[in-house]
Design brief:
By secondary structure, this protein is of the alpha/beta class. The chain has a seven-stranded mixed β-sheet. Helix 6 packs across helix 10 and helix 7 runs antiparallel to helix 8. The chain is globular, with a radius of gyration of 22 Å. The two termini are 32 Å apart.
C-alpha cells in the first residue's frame, strides 16, 4: 500500500487498558500504521511486552495510573499535549473503547473519533444488553437466563442442561487477582450457585447460557469498519482453524473464508445499532440447526485483524485512519484463503507451507525484534506456570480440583427472567442451544 494513501501528517494513538503483555493485536496495529508512514504512539503497560521492541513505535506512554475514566482521560489528554496535533485514537480493548465513548466530548478537541451514537460501545460489550440487541435485530443468540438469586442460578443451570456457560455481563469490571473469569463452563448446579454468590465481587450480573460443544467449522468471526456514512468496509468473515484454549479460546490459527450468512448477520446488527468504527464479532454455528449465533460484539479491533488485509493493503485499522482523515479507501479485492497464525499458541501451524498467503502474529521480516522478544518472554512465562503447578498441585489436589458433572434430581421451577432470541424451530432449549466460546484462561502453549 503506497504511503501516500494515508495522511502521514496525522499520528495515531493506540490505547490499551488490559495489561496482557502478549496481546499481538496491539503489535499488528503498530505495524499496520507504522509501515504506512504514520507516527504511532502507544498508551499501554509495555513492561515485559514484545510491542516495545517494534521499530514502528514512535513513542511509548505510561498507562493510566488507575482504571477510572478520569485517569484514562487525564492520560490521553497528556499524550495529546505531547503529540501537539489531533490524532486518530484507536482503543485496543473493550475497557478502552467504553471509556473513550463516555469521554467523547472531552477528547474530541484532541482526537479524531468515529461518530458513535450514544453509548453503543458499552451496550454491545455488556453481555446482558447484547441479548436484547440481538433479539431486536433478529440476529440469533444463545438462549440466556439472568438469575436473581443463588437458588435460581442453581435451578436454571440444571434446566438449561449441564454443562452451561456462565458469563459476567461486564467483564471489564472483574477485579484483578480475583480468579474470576469472564467466561467459564459450569458443570453442576452447585458451581452455578457458588459463582452467583460472587456477584458483588464481580461487579456485574451473572448470565447463564446453554452450551453447544465446539466442532469443526463451527467457530467464526467477522471483522469490519463502519465508515462515516454507515457502510461496512474492509474486513470480512473468517473461521477458527485452531483455538487456545482448545474449543473455547482465542484464535490461534484463522482463515479468511467467505460466508454470506455471517456477513448478513453483521450488516443487519450494525445497521440496527447505527454503529460506527471498528468491530470484531464472534459467532458459533449450531450443529443441530446450522444457524450462526452471535456470541460477542467487541467494539474494537480483534487480535487477528491483520488476517483481513485486502489486495490494496487495507485492514480495519488503516480504514479508520483513512476515513477519519477524509481520504478515500482504495478499492481492494478480498483474499480468501489467507491465514493468520499466533506462533506461541500454534508453533507447528507457523511452520507449515501455505499457498494463499499467511501472516504471523509476532514475526515479521521488516520488524524482527518483537518476534525474538516474544520467544524469550514466552519461554519464561511457560516455565513459571509449570513451576507453579508443580509446587501447588500434587496428585490429591489435582483430583480434588478436577470439575465433575453432578447429576441430581431437578430443582423446583423458578420465576427467572428468560431472554430468548430467534434460535431455530425447536427454540434451542435444553442441550441443543449454542453458547459462547470465549477466552477462559490466559496463555498456554499449543501444539496446533
Amino acid at each position: 500500500m503506497p504511503q501516500s494513501l494515508l495522511d502521514t501528517r496525522v499520528p495515531a494513538v493506540l490505547l490499551r487498558i488490559d495489561r496482557n503483555p502478549f496481546h499481538h493485536g496491539t503489535l499488528g496495529a503498530v505495524r499496520s500504521l507504522g509501515r504506512a508512514g504514520v507516527d504511532v504512539h502507544v498508551v499501554a503497560d509495555s513492561t515485559g511486552s514484545p510491542v516495545r521492541a517494534s521499530r514502528f513505535v514512535r513513542e511509548l506512554h505510561p498507562p493510566p495510573p488507575g482504571a477510572t475514566h478520569a485517569d484514562i482521560a487525564a492520560t490521553l489528554l497528556r499524550v495529546a499535549a505531547r503529540v501537539e496535533r489531533p490524532a486518530v485514537l484507536i482503543p485496543m480493548d473493550d475497557a478502552g473503547a467504553i471509556a473513550v465513548s463516555r469521554m467523547r466530548d472531552e477528547l474530541t478537541p484532541a482526537y479524531l473519533l468515529p461518530q458513535q451514537p450514544g453509548a453503543v460501545p458499552e451496550r454491545v460489550s455488556d453481555k446482558a444488553e447484547l441479548v436484547a440487541l440481538c433479539a431486536a435485530a433478529d440476529v440469533p443468540h444463545p438462549l440466556t437466563v439472568i438469575p436473581d438469586s443463588a437458588a435460581q442460578a442453581s435451578s436454571e443451570a440444571w434446566r438449561l442442561g449441564l454443562p452451561v456457560v456462565a458469563k459476567w455481563s461486564r467483564p471489564w469490571l472483574l477485579p484483578a487477582g480475583s480468579g474470576l473469569r469472564s467466561t467459564a463452563l459450569v458443570r453442576s448446579p452447585r458451581e452455578a450457585r457458588e459463582l452467583y454468590l460472587r456477584t458483588e465481587e464481580a461487579g456485574s450480573r451473572l448470565l447463564l447460557q446453554a452450551f453447544l460443544p465446539p466442532g469443526q467449522d463451527r467457530d467464526w468471526f467477522f471483522h469490519g469498519y463502519t465508515d462515516r456514512s454507515g457502510s461496512l468496509r474492509a474486513g470480512g468473515p473468517g473461521r477458527k482453524l485452531c483455538a487456545w484454549p482448545r474449543g473455547a479460546g482465542l484464535t490461534a490459527v484463522g482463515e479468511w473464508t467467505e460466508n454470506p450468512e455471517v456477513r448478513t448477520h453483521a450488516e443487519r446488527l450494525v445497521g440496527a445499532l447505527g454503529y460506527r468504527g471498528i468491530l470484531d464479532l464472534d459467532f458459533r454455528r449450531c450443529g443441530a440447526t446450522g444457524e450462526y449465533h452471535l456470541l460477542d460484539f467487541n467494539p474494537r479491533p480483534g487480535a487477528q485483524f491483520r488476517l483481513f488485509t485486502d489486495s490494496a493493503g487495507v485492514d480495519v485499522v488503516r480504514a479508520q485512519h483513512l476515513d477519519l482523515t477524509h481520504r478515500p479507501l482504495p478499492p481492494g479485492e478480498p483474499r480468501p484463503g489467507r491465514t493468520f497464525v499466533v506462533e506461541n499458541y500454534a508453533p507447528l501451524a507457523a511452520l507449515r507451507p501455505t499457498r494463499r498467503g499467511r501472516e504471523l502474529a509476532w514475526h515479521a521480516g521488516d520488524d524482527t525484534a518483537p518476534g525474538r522478544a516474544m520467544w524469550g518472554l514466552w519461554a519464561a512465562h511457560v516455565a513459571r506456570r509449570l513451576l507453579h503447578r508443580l509446587r501447588g498441585l500434587g496428585p490429591a489436589a489435582t483430583a480434588e480440583a478436577e470439575p465433575r458433572v453432578v447429576r441430581q434430581s431437578p430443582p423446583p421451577p423458578s420465576s427467572l427472567t428468560r431472554l430468548r432470541t430467534q434460535t431455530g424451530s425447536a427454540g434451542q432449549s435444553g442441550r441443543t442451544a449454542p453458547a459462547v466460546a470465549g477466552p477462559t484462561d490466559d496463555e498456554k502453549a499449543s501444539s496446533c
